[in-house]
Amino acid sequence: MTVDFDRVLGFAEQGLSWAGPAPSFDAAAHNAEQADVWASFQARRPFRVPMILGFNCRVLLQDPVLNPEHVSFREYFADPQVLLGTLLRFATYSRFHLPSDREMGWPDQWTLDLALMNTYEAEWLGGTLAYRENEVPDLLPFLDDARCRSMLDGPVPDPFSGPAGRIAELADALRTAERDGLSFQGRPVRLGSVPYAGTDGPMTLACAIRGVEAFCLDLAENPVFAQALLSFLTDATIRRIRAWRTFLGQTAPEHLSFADDSIVLLSLEDYEHHILPHHRRLVRELSVSGTDNAIHLCGDASRFFPTLVRELSVHAFDTGFPIRHGEVLRTLGPNATLSGGVPVTLLQHGSPAQVEAETKRILEDVMPVSHRFILREANNLPPRTPPGNVGAMYDAVRRFGRYPPEPADPPEPADPAAPSVPGR
What we know:
Elements: H1 5-19, H2 27-42, H3 58-61, H4 73-78, H5 80-97, E1 110-112, H6 120-124, E2 129-130, E3 138-139, H7 145-153, H8 163-179, E4 183-184, E5 187-191, H9 202-210, H10 212-221, H11 223-247, E6 257-259, H12 268-286, E7 293-297, H13 305-312, E8 314-319, H14 325-332, E9 337-340, H15 344-349, H16 352-366, E10 373-375, H17 387-400
Helix pairs in contact: 1-5, 9-10, 9-11, 10-11, 11-12, 16-17
């Protein structure tokens, strides 16, 4: 793949006029504070609740103010220059307009995560993206009974086939340009994460390629077939992730982080019977220790959490809504980490005062129970969310998210052999 990086940089530069710096803040002070927040959190002695944001460049593409050229998702996915240029625009915009506990302001270097909007796994298996006007592309189910039999009788797909191969070529081109000194605004540009090295989970993938209703009926009416499909998808996922880790120069992590949003459609009993064995395989095959794993689950998936702790050693839960945060943390105990927060509908449509009130309510619910809570939007920041509402959430966590100071360690007992010195 040939990438015109002059065009990438020109596209990104042009976007600075409407998506570039504007808010004035002390980036050095912010970056020092956020570093202290995370250091204390990792040391399990936090002085306040950290805040993160889940977002991607749809924030730009679906906002006519930030995308006055009306760059479409079709262009974003089809044109590598537009994709990389959009990622640089978004990196700039988010660093100056969307505060959270991460580095902000001008960076030492730009790190571009190749955002593919949760379509990558199903497209890799043979699906076709469906583009709707000003919407994130979707993938229509394509695996009817005949194609299912053909897939299950065939080999596991090559990890770099189809769209995965194009992204591998793009990643290689970016790494080559990085070595040749690619820079934007005087700062080097490097490749970050690539989604093909992760997974949205076997049931979610089965629902994407088969159709939600069809696959749920498979589980109920043809469980032998459903298990064969899940086993095939799990095998393919393990092979793909291992190959992409090698391609990206990554080693197997101590702990696995993955997702499987579609399990929320199941009862706990059905999850344990149908899906849990495949999750066990992912954890066993893709992490070194198999312990302290992390999972993202949308919706009210809290009924699964104790099972995930017990069976998969999951201790970090990234959530959406509706979630009763304090109740979940009481159930899971002090060692569990929970990420969650203000529903995105309120962030998008509410007032700063409403966002502050809901943030304060959530913090008051969780802070007496746990020091392992991370505040975030619930979940994935939608386009046209007023930056002032994101700022209201961040201001609220800085104001109301501070833990009481820990009591000082008691003084060492006096040596009984030493004479006491009377005070004056």
